[in-house]
Amino acid sequence: MHHNLPLDCPIRIVSLKVTDVRFPTSEGLHGSDAIHPDPDYSAAYVELTTSEAGLKGCGSAFTLGRGTEVIAKNIESLKHYVEDKKLESIVNNFRNFYHALVNDGQMRWLGPEKGVLHMACSAILNAIWDLWAKVAGKPVWKLLSDMRPQQLVDLIDFTYISDYLTPDEALQILAEDGKENDREGYLNANGYPAYTTSAGWLGYSEQTIREQHALLSAQGFDKFKMTDANQRWSVPEAVAWMRQLAEFQPYWIEEPTSPDDVLGHRAVRDALQPLGVRVATGEMCQNKVLFKQFFQAAALDVCQIDACRLASVNEVLPVLLMAAKAG
């Protein structure tokens, strides 16, 4: 159902419902990787029921099965932040709402701003963004892209990151970015050409690796080949493995080591940069402060984000702006 209601329409969030949704993907090892061998793709799924008949906001936090109930319980403990609140009062003061939610005076002891609690906040915030977009009659990406630079900056909580990115710097980045070519028009006209696949894990013989490389090259996929260690290696192991693979010119190595090890990533980057191999990470990065440290330490080349681990769009925005500043 599509709703084209003005934002000043007095839509009230009546209730929050959270559902523990799980799929037995482990039976076929679907989605498994080098460090998560038996995932059951799951979600703590949030539904915000409103005073407008048929209008709901839906959001989720992604999990791998066991533990989903823990996130769901955290969501239940935070539902008073949205129940019986007007949507307008939340989104018109989103920075302060976000700060209050992720810094609940009692719950933050379980974080702060990390782990299960932060993922619970992301599910609630994702549902609010979904609701706001439905009211505006746009997908979330369009709701964002139609905002003026100052509106975007007003969404961001700069707590703990203003030593690296100030509101004025963020505003300048967005203002300059808006002067560039019409990327939205280009993408609407041409699409986004990409194909991703998993060819296999390390542990294959050298002959098999060379056969896969030859096959990909013959099919025209030799421009961007990306490798992913899924946090499996120590820093020395990451460097040693990627030196062996460097002749195949992988574009990046993703998550080469612990997602919290900023200086470890910097060491891997320093070792691989002369070989033309970039370092990518961020999917398991727990918050904007850790991202700030990655940028300050020049420890990554490619910034990856997950709006179900970070606290939704509200935290993704400052991370992307810090990445833009870092170049």
TrEMBL record:
Domain of life: Eukaryota
MF GO annotations: hydro-lyase activity; magnesium ion binding
Domain spans labelled Mandelate racemase/muconate lactonizing enzyme C-terminal: 205-275
SUPFAM superfamilies listed in its UniProt record: Enolase C-terminal domain-like (SSF51604), Enolase N-terminal domain-like (SSF54826)
Keywords tagged on the record: Magnesium, Metal-binding
UniProt keyword rRNA-binding, yes or no: no
Gene3D superfamilies named among the record's database cross-references: Enolase-like C-terminal domain, Enolase-like, N-terminal domain
Pfam families assigned to the protein according to its UniProt record, in alphabetical order: MR_MLE_C, MR_MLE_N
Record InterPro entries: Enolase-like_C_sf, Enolase-like_N, Enolase_C-like, Mandelate_racemase_C, Mandelate_racemase_N_dom, RHMD-like
UniProt cofactor(s): Mg(2+)
GO biological process: carbohydrate catabolic process
PANTHER family per the UniProt record, alphabetical: ENOLASE SUPERFAMILY, MANDELATE RACEMASE (PTHR13794), MITOCHONDRIAL ENOLASE SUPERFAMILY MEMBER 1 (PTHR13794:SF58)
Name listed for the protein in its UniProt record: MR_MLE domain-containing protein
